[in-house]
Amino acid sequence: MAPLVKIEKLRVTARDDYGRELVIVKDVSFTVEPGEVVALIGESGSGKTTIALSLMGYARAGSRIVGGKITFDGREVLAMSQRELASLRGRDMAYVPQSAAASFNPARPLLKQVIESSQIHRVMPVVEAEAKAVALFRELVLPNPEKVGERYPHQVSGGQLQRLLAAMALVTEPKLVIFDEPTTALDVTTQIEVLRVFKKAIKERGTTAVYVSHDLAVVAQMADRIIVLRDGTIHEVDATGRILSSPKNDYTKSLLAAAEPQVRAAAAATTQRRATPPVVEVRSVIAGYGKVDRDGIPALPVLRDINLSIKPGSTLGIIGESGCGKSTLARVVAGLLPAARGEVQLDGMPLPRAAAERTRDQLRRIQIVFQSADTALNPARPIGRILGRPLEFYHGLTGDKRRRRVTELLDMVRLPATIAERYPSEISGGQKQRVNLARALAAEPSLILCDEVTSALDTVVGAAILDLLAELQREIGVAYLFISHDLSTVKAVCDQVMILYAGQIMEHGSRQALHRRPLHPYSDLLISSVPELRQGWLDRMSERFFKEATTGVARTGREQTCSFFERCPVRIPGRCDVEPTPVRRLSKGAEIRCLRTEEELVKLTAG
Q: Residue 91: how many CB atoms within 10 A of its CB?
């Protein structure tokens, strides 16, 4: 049987900011057989998305397909007219991008958008398309499939939007679907939910797919074959099992090594730290949005009775699903969102709740590094000026002293001094995040709030940032509050780990305690949801587990009952949903919020 897709010596160029034309895809050749799922993996800049888009005869702004041949279903794609390409895209070839939120029109109901391609290509009447879309909603395990299409994009979750995007791609029954990092921005339990329904839909239809990702653990679950890319060239091609078990190329080996996070938390001086007073404490904090009532409870509570402490030179990891309150907690500590009740202390002294009321030195001591360096850095200012601003504001440095310190800061984050003359658009994503970190370091803080600082980066670049954070901690003794939805990363970089669900602390303990058998039902769910770097892991996940991961909704509000009640497999109706949930200390040293005793949990989770 002839391959559905055949690429021969594909060459793509792009123009840089100085007008130079660079080759970014260099004579790439491969095939995709009917019914096969082929993964393109590699770090940022490897050319994987550029190649995937080229399959549709498309090149992004500033780039051009300058050579090679692409054959799809016997047709030469690069010889097609724009009209022929328009007929191909969305009909025979469908594309599922990373950001579902950016792909939908906020002003139109979801169903109308899902069936749009079927109407553009006149594949079927509206009534038939709507019925098919609803069947897809049911197949993709969307809640209330008959009604979800009446909602607007802002009325559904990120994971639901991603599945709706898949429905949009599949509604025309395309011969090829291109998945471009479709689960990268999702938390672990949502990711497993989306991966499971994607894989089921692909398998049942015999769909041919190209899956673009930097996450080898995800690719291991989805792909029959892997193509490893770096700097626009193919470094290795093989069956998924052989790539995972016996890679031949050194770069492939480095990708596999980066996918298994190494422990980076600074272990030195642990005993000394225990006797050291915390640099920051959060005490009985309640926070949220909307009007605050006379009891100090906001109309939309997000955090409920949060307590934590961070010692100098240590790292506290905060983990949980999207919407659990992780970023809200960082905003409360930074003073960007004043707590409704409770307090944040710095060196044992209460801080004003709002950043505007804090002194310059209090602002200096707590800095924040956001997830997206693209939006955090002013595109109209060179890097040197971006780094110079906090030096002048906090330390009064000007002229040569400021320039010298900028050079020192760039060296601290392992960037060359020449970067100071460049603009954010002229450097890579990993370099931008290093600049973002250098700006925080410019203040000489005691605590840096790291809010998903590696989630937008590929595995290799993310690993380099984690190594840098650990190295800086050893060198200057800075403390971190490290927020992530990636449990593997948190376990690798943090001394202490706190698990949040719907604004409540479910579990809190040392990294070592987290490595031991999880007893809290939510901790168990979260830890079990992290994809393993082996084939078949997703297929072997139990149906019972999958239902636990995807059913029920969080209980939110002012009451102190368990927010995990609706999803908990060991809940006690009439107690867990009525009584305040106590915090229990386990024999392994961690604390959990649960009505069940440790002995009960051991029995209930055995096997």
A: 18
| pLDDT tens profile 170-229 | 999 999 999 998 887 777 888 888 888 889 889 888 999 999 998 898 999 999 999 999
Beta carbons of 593 and 581 less than 8 angstroms apart: yes
Count other Cβ atoms within 10 Å, centred on residue 305.
16
Render the burial of 21-37: b for 16+ CB within 10 Å, e for the rest: eebbbbebebbbeeebb
Does the model's pTM come out above 0.90? Answer: no
What whole-number distance in Å separates Cα of residue 234 and Cα of residue 29?
A: 8
Residue type at position 9: K
- H helical segments located in 284-359: 326-334
Tokens of 534: 């082996």
- Under a CB-based contact definition with an 8 Å cutoff, are residues 7 and 69 in contact? yes
Q: State both tokens at 296.
A: 């100090």
270-378+439-511 CATH, one of 3.20.20.140, 3.40.50.300, 3.40.50.720, 1.10.10.60: 3.40.50.300
Kindly report, as residue ranges, where domains of CATH 3.40.50.300 are found in the chain.
1-83+212-259, 270-378+439-511
Place of tokens 């990363």: 489
Q: How many residues does the chain have?
A: 607
Give 271-329 pLDDT, tens digit per residue. Answer: 455 668 999 999 999 999 889 888 888 988 889 999 999 999 999 999 988 778 998 99
* Residue 332 CB contacts under 8 Å (≥ 6 apart), including other chains: 282, 285, 287, 303, 338, 339, 344
* Residue with token string 């594909």: 10
Under 8 Å between Cβ of 582 and 575: no
Query: What three-state secondary structure class fits 486?
Result: coil
CB contact set of 375 (below 8 Å; sequence gap of 6+): none
HEC readout, 515-548: HCCCCCHHHHHHHHCCCCCCCCHHHHCCHHHHHH
CATH of 1-83+212-259, one of 3.40.50.300, 3.40.50.1370, 2.20.25.110, 3.30.230.10: 3.40.50.300
Element (H, E) at 14: strand 5-15
* b/e map 523-534, b = 16+ CB within 10 Å: bbbbbbbbbebe
Beta bridge partners of 286: 341
Q: Which long-range contacts (CB under 8 A, 24 or more apart) does 249-254 make?
A: 252/228, 254/460
For residue 89, give the DSSP letter: B
**In contact, 252 and 243? CB cutoff 8 Å:** yes
Distance CA 85, CA 123 (A): 16
Full DSSP string of 226-247: EEEEETTEEEEEEEHHHHHHS-
Could you tell me which of 103, 11, 120, 91 has the C-alpha nearest to residue 59? 11
Q: Using alpha carbons only, give the angle 182, 183, 184 rounded to the nearest 5 degrees.
A: 105
Q: How far apart are CA 81 and CA 78, in angstroms?
A: 8
Strands (E), 348-446: 349-350, 366-369
